[in-house]
Amino acid sequence: MLLAIVLLVRAAETGWLPVGGMLSPSATAGNSADRARDIVWHMVLPVAVLVWGMLPVLLRHIRATMGETLDAPFAVSARAHGIPRLRLLYRHLLPAAMNPLVSLFGFSLGTLPSASLLVEVVTGWPGIGPLFLDAIMARDFAVVVAVVVLSASFLIAGNLAADLILYRIDPRIRAK
């Protein structure tokens, strides 16, 4: 949340990025290509907040997992056999370290809609976030339940996608 506020203040000071809404007033009269370009330009700030908010968590897990994999007996043996460093990293260590990273990816994919609710409210993007907040204030329980079910569905779908990817890339998971 703090990252969103800092980026909003910086965007407002510099004027490099639009700070609210989905379209500029001048883009409403343009053709569809101009409108699409304007929507993408307005999405830069919310997407940057979401990506930069998740990036430290992902990088920390990658670093910790690769550190554990580097100390594994098969990695020590591969280095002793003289396998070049880059080949060892990309062909042996990274695939072995993918299991927890794919699981974290599935969880991140599932929590993305929940995180975007707050980012939409702060950055002024007219999406499900402001709708959800208005529904809470108006005590519209049907909309609140629908948004919660949608968020839970994304969490389940993200974990299912992670499990399917793990089944595909990790031979230790497959049953004979």
Task: Present the secondary structure layout.
Layout: H1 2-14, H2 32-70, H3 73-80, H4 85-123, H5 128-137, H6 141-169
Helix pairs in contact: 1-2, 2-4, 4-5, 4-6, 5-6
Structure description:
The structure is a single chain. The chain has one domain. It contains 6 helices and no strands. It is elongated. It starts with a helix and ends in a 7-residue tail after the last helix. The protein has helices at 2-14, 32-70, 73-80, 85-123, 128-137, 141-169. Helices cover 78% and strands 0% of the residues. The protein is mostly helical and 176 residues long.
- Give the helix level as a range of percent: over 70%
Give the CA-based shape: elongated
Order of helices and strands: HHHHHH
The end-to-end span amounts to 47 Å
Would you tell me the overall average pLDDT?
A: 86
Total individual domains: 1
Strand content: under 5%
Report on the biggest sheet: none
Uncertain residue segments:
none
Please report the total strand number as a whole number. 0
